[in-house]
Amino acid sequence: MNNIIENRTWRYATKKFDSTKKVSDEDLELLLEATRLSASSYGLQPYHVFVITDDKIREQLRPVSWGQSQITDASHLIVFANVTDFGEEMMDDYLQNVSSTRKIPAEGLKGYGDFMKSKLLDLPANIKGVWTARQAYIAFSNMMQAASELKIDSCPMEGFESEAYNEILGLSEKNLNASVVLAVGYRSEEDETQHYAKVRKSKEELFTHI
């Protein structure tokens, strides 16, 4: 079986982690780098990623995560927080990064900058938040798939109270909002769900070739 399919078949939403097993620093860096290299619209990456290992913070997060054990038992808890609002400074910072990285004069990027600003700056505030959250999900998906390639278990989690996360992690004052969480680590032998057959729509039902 091709590794691409094998890894995705092996992966499942881990319900019970072995709290004694930790992801190595080396593998964690690979996960983070794979996430850093994720695609995003215009390349802007309008989100921030928090890697949480502090036991006290995770104990605070568990009750506002529907009491799910993955919050405290996984090796690492990764919180993806999207930018809630933005102005032209976000595009300007990105363009400066492009100029520095690619050794391009900043003035040569003005046209692209003006184009981005024309498409994004006039969006209503709530739509800006929806758009940035979608970008965070792209990075989140890349981390989850990278984990499967490293045979690191994960559990994607939307079952939490965003506002409570924002308060506990001090996100609101940073213009951020907790949008999605990924628990990573290694499955417990006691997790029965690892033996369940993967349930997905058939190819015929899911895909239409035109």
Spell out the blueprint of helices and strands.
Blueprint lengths: L2 H8 L14 H12 L10 E6 L2 H7 L8 H4 L2 E8 L4 H15 L7 H11 L4 H25 L3 E5 L4 H8 L6 E10 L17 H4 L4
Antiparallel strand pairs: 1-2, 2-4, 3-4
What do these coordinates show?
The protein is an alpha+beta fold. It has one domain: NADH Oxidase (3-Layer(aba) Sandwich). Helices cover 45% and strands 14% of the residues. The chain has nine helices and four strands. The protein has a four-stranded antiparallel sheet, sandwiched between helices. Helix 2 (25-36) crosses helix 7 (125-149). The chain is globular. The protein starts with a helix and ends with a helix. The model has no long low-confidence stretch (mean pLDDT 97). Pfam families: Nitroreductase. GO terms for molecular function: oxidoreductase activity. Keywords: Flavoprotein, FMN, NADP, Oxidoreductase.
